[in-house]
């Protein structure tokens, strides 16, 4: 997967906290911390979007766990397609 360089501005307090987690060995660098934070946030937002889609579709509430898992995968795929379209 390719990556892009993106510059961000952080408060000194945020930088101090990130540096703490680098010094204690939790992360190797600021980039590692920021990538982790971005992925975590993206996953939380996608999960929120999935929950909203399921909540809007009443027929999904009373289905088997297997079928629900398939539906969630389909919804997630559609959401990623929507995200990539709006990013283009």
Task: Please characterize this protein's 3D structure.
70% of the residues lie in helices and 0% in strands. With 88 residues, the chain is mainly alpha-helical. The protein has one domain (12-87). Helix 2 packs across helix 3 (65-87). The protein is elongated and about 50 Å long.
Structural topology:
Elements: H1 12-23, H2 30-56, H3 65-87
Helix pairs in contact: 2-3
Helix content: over 70%
Cα(first) to Cα(last) distance is 17 Å
Low-confidence stretches: none
Give Rg in angstroms.
Answer: 18 Å
The profile of the biggest β sheet is: none
Mean of residue pLDDT values? 82
Q: In what range is the share of β-strand residues? A: under 5%
What's the total number of strands? Answer: 0
Structural shape: elongated
Indicate the structural class: mainly alpha
SSE succession: HHH
Number of helices: 3
Overall number of domains: 1
Summarize the structure.
This protein is an all-alpha fold.
Features:
88 residues; mainly alpha; elongated
């Amino acid at each position: 997967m390719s990556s892009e360089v993106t510059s961000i501005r952080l408060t000194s307090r945020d930088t101090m906290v990130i540096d703490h987690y680098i010094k204690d060995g939790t992360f190797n660098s600021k980039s590692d911390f920021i990538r982790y934070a971005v992925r975590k946030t993206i996953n939380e937002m996608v999960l929120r979007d999935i929950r909203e889609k399921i909540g809007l579709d009443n027929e999904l509430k009373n289905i088997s766990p297997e079928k629900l898992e398939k539906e969630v995968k389909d919804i997630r795929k559609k959401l990623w397609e929507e995200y990539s379209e709006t990013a283009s």
